[in-house]
Amino acid sequence: MTVQVSRAPLADSGAGAEIERWTLSSGPVEVSVLSLGATLHTVRVPDRTGAVAQVLLCTEELAGILGPARHYGATVGRYANRIGDSSFTLDGVAHRLAPTGPGVTLHGGPDGFADRTWAAEQVADGERAGVRLHLHSPDGDQGFPGALDTWVSYLLAPDGELAIEYRAVTTRPTVINLTNHAYFNLNGEGSGDVLGHLLTVEADLITPTDGRQVPTGEYLPVAGTPFDFTTPRPIGERIREEHPQLAGTGGYDHNWVLRSDAQDTRPVRAAVLQDPVSGRWLEVWTTEPGIQVYTANGFAGAVTGPSGTAYGPFTGVALETQHFPDSPHHPRFPSTELRPGEEFRSVTLLRFGC
To answer: Per the annotation, does 183 bind a ligand?
Structure first.
């Protein structure tokens, strides 16, 4: 079985850059990627009966893609997740970042990587094939130092495994944290909530957060708490329990500290998501030291999917492999620094089955 790759225009972004849709397919598995935001837009996989469904939350409406759905499946950066106080100091030099809210910069700033149209080209790696996207971010972009060149490759294997491979280089010392922000519903988008999905996270700790959802710098054991997914548990089993870390979020929106060595360049299993209804499952493997689990707590129907269903709370779950939020302020956290002459590399694998 060979992987087929095709390209077609989606729309004009309004900034003179055409948005392309790249489609990768192998047997019953089909993936689409948009050049806007280097976005994983759709994933179609079979269930236990062979029926194929789209398992990512998305919209086909350009206004939604450019608006309330702009982070759905996107590559977010330069710094995924949150940096507190919209600033950091590196080598004794303070850098002020573009804020996205009071006391925080989220996902790289108000004009982050998710909002840019990336250059795209077809690539192959052995039996795998897909698309490689490139973005140049100038020195000082959103307040971050260094001109940064970033490449993201989506490579589909004949067996349906999807690899997301990141690479970046910089001209000045900087910080970087990249992730993919897809929302999964393994019963199919628009089919209801994911509270009955079983989740396993290979982690014994989380990084607790303050009222801004910025890490405090501490580590909190998950044992005996609603954050314990060391064995498969329904997402909704304890999501409404009284716990200080759930009080302000309305659900899960936290970074789990994976057991794997943060310096290891070999992907290890980070999480497993299972849907008892359809039989579909997803394994997430990564070289990253953390994973953010976000259960779409804040969704309020602003985005309508291809099914015609408006997405409300808990209609999907994001499993964002990453370095830790706010790492520049916490020396105990794995470093997110990147320097000239170095190369940032990261790999996340999505393995689907039924």
So the answer is: yes
Q: Domain spanning 4-353 has what CATH number?
A: 2.70.98.10
pLDDT in tens, 239-288: 999 999 999 899 999 999 999 754 557 899 999 999 999 999 999 999 99
Residue numbers annotated as active site: 181, 320
Instruction: Decide: 230 and 219 in contact? Cβ < 8 Å.
Output: no
Q: Return the closest-CA partner of residue 65 out of 141, 131, 132, 14.
A: 14
Has 294 been labeled as part of a binding site?
Answer: no
Domain ranges of the chain: 4-353
Q: What is d(CA 10, CA 143) in angstroms, rounded to the nearest whole number?
A: 31
C-beta of residue 254 within 8 angstroms of C-beta of residue 292: yes
Does the annotation flag 264 for ligand binding? no
Residue 253 assigned to a binding site: yes
Single out the residue of 340, 287, 323, 293 nearest to residue 145, CA to CA: 340
Q: Residue 247: what are its φ and ψ, rounded to 5°?
A: -60, -40
Q: Are 77 and 113 in contact (CB under 8 A)?
A: yes
pTM: 0.96
Closest-CA residue to 228 (of 249, 256, 207): 256
**What's the rounded Cα separation, in Å, for the pair 179 and 71?**
11
From the number of C-beta atoms within 10 Å of its C-beta (0-12, 13-18, 19+), residue 282 rates as buried
Distance CA(103)–CA(94), nearest Å, equals 16
Non-local CB neighbours of 223 within 8 Å, separated by 6+ positions: 204, 230
pLDDT tens per residue, range 201-220: 999 999 999 999 999 999 99
